[in-house]
Every structure is written in structure tokens, then in C-alpha cells.
């Protein structure tokens, strides 16, 4: 009797235990499944690889042939030694980027906050976020007031070029932020597209050629030059527009006017001594890697100058005379409207200012001063810019 009771009790207890075990097992299975779903399912919703794939297919359909080309990016040939030290420097919160005062007019063309932070500047196409950010393949390194904005805005019409709209000043003012920071400012590019930026002050900054070389020795460089006397007046006109109380051009340009002693420490004068600055670049780069644009021809024959730039970059001559018209009010060439709904585009008010009137005598003195530098420059470059 006692044995039977004990046996039935043990049986009930073991049944209960089994049920409990089964319940707990099911519960833990459910929990595991729930956790799995939470972690992996949500992740796959956010970064759906098939979505990316779909986007890539779209691009390939449009430009499939081109995507097979080798990337023109500099990233592969980088010697990061110098900048890697600072690669973890703080990101772009207080970047010193030149405000886009020279944006286009005649079209509702404005820079987005992203552009100002330099992150996702779109080119003419307004391409969405395809591709990846790469270090520049080409840099417009100078010269200030040479016509650098015009070159950048004209070349970015090309579908194979994507350019940063603002001036990053990486190699002169922001170098300690590191290459990762610099790269993060670039627009996204597809495999076949060229990444470009322009910072005209690079041309006269001593450390810049070495720093650019250490980033990428195969980089292509563009220098837009202009008659150094006109350039100096343009530079001065710009400063005057911001600080109306500065001394006269003549007072700043000459240490001693009677003796004809030019003040080469004044930046507006110093920048125009092109031959001098070019020497620093030639210590690192062969002349074949540098393309010189005539600032004067850029105004009289923009298509011709753009044709030569496209050849230098190794891209198809897509930008031709069909893209330009001469705007009589502005007094400069502007881009024609790209489609029926858009407006033509001229550079902003800060480009093509009316220059301050300077005495002919002052101009002649400066012309004499620059002559030897100009001759040396023509010889080195192998091109006569006719600044006499
Ligand atoms: N298409 C077109 N439209 C307007 N302006 C043109 C154009 N092509 C060249 N230029 C000349 O560009 C000069 C300004 O040069 P930058 O863009 O290099 O200036 S800056 O260094 O970025 O401030 C600017 O100088 P200034 O005329 O002295 O204002 C222009 O002469």
C-alpha cells in the first residue's frame, strides 16, 4: 500500500517536473528566438544588403561600361606617414572652410548646410549618395584670384568629375586633422569619377607640395594663373570690399615709392611671383603632372581652356563651346542652362568685381618688377602667357 502510494507520488512528481522542464525549455527557446529577431532582423532592415545591391545595379545600368574602368582615386598610392599621427583628430565641428561667397547667380543655386560643412557637395547632377568618399585625384592649388572658382564650377559639369564646393584648406590650415578628416569632406564618387577640390592658397604655402606629395605622388595639379599685376589689384579690391579703411594700393605695394622698392612681403604682391613658388612644387612633382590654365583665356575662350583641362585629366571632352554663352551684363562667360527648366549660371558677385582704379605709373612699375619672374615662369612652364 505504502509502496503504491510512493510510486504514484513519484510518478506525479516526475510528470510535473517534465512539464515544468518542457515549459521552461519552450520559454527559453522563445526568448532566444525573440533576441535573435531583435538583433539580426532589425539590423538587416537598416542595412539591407540587397537594397545596396539594387542601387548598384541601377548605376551599372546607367554607366555599366564605365564602371569597369580602374578607379582614378589616389587612395591606393598613399603614404600616410605624416598625417596618420593625427588621424583620430576631432571631426568637422569647427572646420575652417571658406564660406561659399562665390556661388552661382542667375539660378536658384545655393549651398546646402552639408556643402558648407564640406560633406556631401553635389555636382551638377545632384547625384544621391552613391559610391564612396575618396582622397582627391586632382587639386586646383592656385592661384588666388586667378579664376579658380570658374575652373571648378565649369569642370564639375562633367559627369566624370565630382568636386567639393568649399575650400577645405587641408594642407595649409587643417593638416593636423588628418587624412581621414580630409577624405570625409569629399563628395562620394563612383569608380570612374574624379574627386576634386580647390584651395588657391596651397600654391604659396611652403609645406603644401611636400604634404600633397606624401598623400599621393601621382596626383594631378591645376594652377590657374593670371597677369600678376591684375591679380594683385583684384586681390586688393577684394580686401578693400571687406575692410574699407586699409591704406591705398600704392602704399601697400611699395616699401619706397620714390626708389621703386616693391614690398614683396605684402601677400598681394608675393603671390604673383609665380616662378618662385613653382620651384617648391617642382621639387616634388614633374612639370607633366601640373596643368597651367591661363586666367585670361578662361574668360575669352572658356571652352578652349576647358578642353585642355579635360585632356589633362584624361576624360572625354564633354564640356565644349555649347556649354557657354557670354553674359554682357556680367561681362564674363556663364554656363548655359542645362535643361529647359533651369536657368543659366554665372559666378556670384565676388567674381568679376570692378577693380579699384590704379595709377598707370604704379601699374608700369609693377609690370617691370614682375617681368623677370614672368619670363622665368614662361621658360619653366614652356608656355607664354603674354602678360607684357
Ligand atoms: N566666368 C567667369 N565669371 C566670373 N569671374 C571669372 C570667370 N572666369 C574667370 N573669372 C575671374 O575669376 C576671378 C576670381 O578668381 P578666383 O575664383 O580664383 O578667386 S578666389 O581666389 O577663389 O577668391 C575674377 O577676378 P575679378 O574679376 O578680379 O573679380 C574673374 O576675373
TrEMBL record:
Active site: 145
Membrane topology listed for this record: Single-pass type II membrane protein
GO molecular function: [heparan sulfate]-glucosamine 3-sulfotransferase activity
UniProt keywords, alphabetically: Disulfide bond, Glycoprotein, Golgi apparatus, Membrane, Signal-anchor, Transferase, Transmembrane, Transmembrane helix
Keyword Metal-binding attributed: no
Limits of the Sulfotransferase domain: 136-371
EC numbers on record: 2.8.2.-
Origin superkingdom: Eukaryota
UniProt KW Transmembrane keyword: yes
Binding site for 3'-phosphoadenylyl sulfate: 145-149, 226, 234, 351-355
Signal sequence, renumbered to the chain: none
Xref: PANTHER family: HEPARAN SULFATE GLUCOSAMINE 3-O-SULFOTRANSFERASE 2, HEPARAN SULFATE SULFOTRANSFERASE
Protein name, per record: Sulfotransferase
Organism per entry: Microcaecilia unicolor
Taxonomic lineage from the root: Eukaryota, Metazoa, Chordata, Craniata, Vertebrata
Gene name linked to the record: HS3ST2
Amino acid at each position: 500500500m505504502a509502496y503504491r502510494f510512493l510510486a504514484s507520488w513519484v510518478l506525479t512528481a516526475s510528470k510535473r517536473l517534465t512539464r515544468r522542464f518542457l515549459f521552461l525549455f519552450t520559454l527559453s527557446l522563445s526568448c532566444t528566438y525573440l533576441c535573435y529577431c531583435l538583433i539580426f532582423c532589425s539590423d538587416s532592415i537598416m542595412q539591407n544588403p540587397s537594397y545596396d545591391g539594387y542601387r548598384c545595379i541601377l548605376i551599372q545600368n546607367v554607366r555599366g561600361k564605365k564602371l569597369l574602368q580602374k578607379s582614378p582615386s589616389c587612395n591606393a598610392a598613399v603614404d600616410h606617414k605624416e598625417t596618420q599621427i593625427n588621424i583620430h583628430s576631432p571631426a568637422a565641428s569647427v572646420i575652417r572652410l571658406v564660406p561659399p561667397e562665390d556661388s552661382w547667380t542667375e539660378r536658384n543655386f545655393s549651398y546646402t548646410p552639408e556643402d558648407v560643412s564640406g560633406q556631401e557637395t553635389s555636382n551638377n547632377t545632384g547625384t544621391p549618395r552613391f559610391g564612396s568618399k575618396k582622397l582627391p585625384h586632382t587639386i586646383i592649388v592656385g592661384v588666388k584670384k586667378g579664376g579658380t572658382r570658374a575652373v571648378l564650377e565649369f569642370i564639375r559639369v562633367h559627369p566624370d568629375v565630382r568636386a567639393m564646393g568649399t575650400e577645405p584648406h587641408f594642407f595649409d590650415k587643417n593638416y593636423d586633422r588628418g587624412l581621414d578628416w580630409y577624405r570625409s569632406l569629399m563628395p562620394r564618387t563612383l569608380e570612374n569619377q574624379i574627386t576634386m577640390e580647390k584651395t588657391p592658397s596651397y600654391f604659396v604655402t611652403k609645406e603644401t607640395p611636400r604634404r600633397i606629395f606624401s598623400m599621393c605622388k601621382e596626383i594631378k595639379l591645376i594652377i590657374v594663373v593670371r597677369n600678376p599685376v591684375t591679380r594683385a589689384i583684384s586681390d586688393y579690391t577684394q580686401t578693400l570690399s571687406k575692410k574699407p579703411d586699409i591704406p591705398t594700393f600704392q602704399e601697400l605695394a611699395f616699401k619706397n615709392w620714390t626708389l621703386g622698392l616693391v614690398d614683396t612681403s605684402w601677400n598681394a604682391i608675393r603671390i604673383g611671383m609665380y616662378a618662385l613658388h613653382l620651384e617648391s612644387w617642382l621639387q616634388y612633382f614633374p612639370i607633366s603632372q601640373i596643368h597651367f590654365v591661363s586666367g585670361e583665356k578662361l574668360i575669352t575662350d572658356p571652352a578652349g581652356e576647358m578642353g585642355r583641362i579635360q585632356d589633362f585629366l584624361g576624360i572625354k571632352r564633354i564640356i565644349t563651346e555649347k556649354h557657354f554663352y557670354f553674359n554682357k551684363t556680367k561681362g564674363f562667360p556663364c554656363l548655359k542652362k542645362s535643361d529647359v527648366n533651369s536657368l543659366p549660371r554665372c559666378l556670384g558677385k565676388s567674381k568679376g568685381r570692378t577693380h579699384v582704379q590704379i595709377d598707370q605709373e604704379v601699374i608700369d612699375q609693377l609690370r617691370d618688377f614682375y617681368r623677370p619672374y614672368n619670363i622665368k615662369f614662361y621658360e619653366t612652364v614652356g608656355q607664354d602667357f603674354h602678360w607684357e
